Prior knowledge:
single chain; 49 residues; mainly alpha; 67% helix
Amino acid sequence: IPSLTTSNFNNSSTDTNSKTNPPQTEPSRQPRKRQLRSSKKNLKLHPQN
Length: 49
């Protein structure tokens, strides 16, 4: 039943990512790679940051 396995895997992966990686509202806690990419995007999309 690949669909069930995929769904469970996706849900588990998302849950793990949510716990491991904080929400985008706290870029200071994000890993460097994500922070760098987010910073560039945030600078363009949200200059106030």
